[in-house]
Amino acid sequence: MFSAMLSGAVAAADRSGYLDRILSPGIHYIGYRSTDPLGDLLAPVLEDPDKLQEIASEGRKQAEANHTWTHRAVAILGAVKEFLHRL
Fold it and tell me: What's the rounded mean pLDDT across residues 5-29?
């Protein structure tokens, strides 16, 4: 999902507790539940190019600021260092 956002695409994903903590559905991505009728959810958004561009732009900003591979590498290295200090 973050790769799509970083490329400037509108991402659509099944919502989760994690995503709800770090992103806002309808602002950064199109969030849905697996029980939602996806076609009914996507149709109005797909008919609004300005809204699609807004979601893509906001998603890209959020992903660039917080969700690149560099961000993940720093977090992983921090976790490894913390683990090693406990030994």
Answer: 95
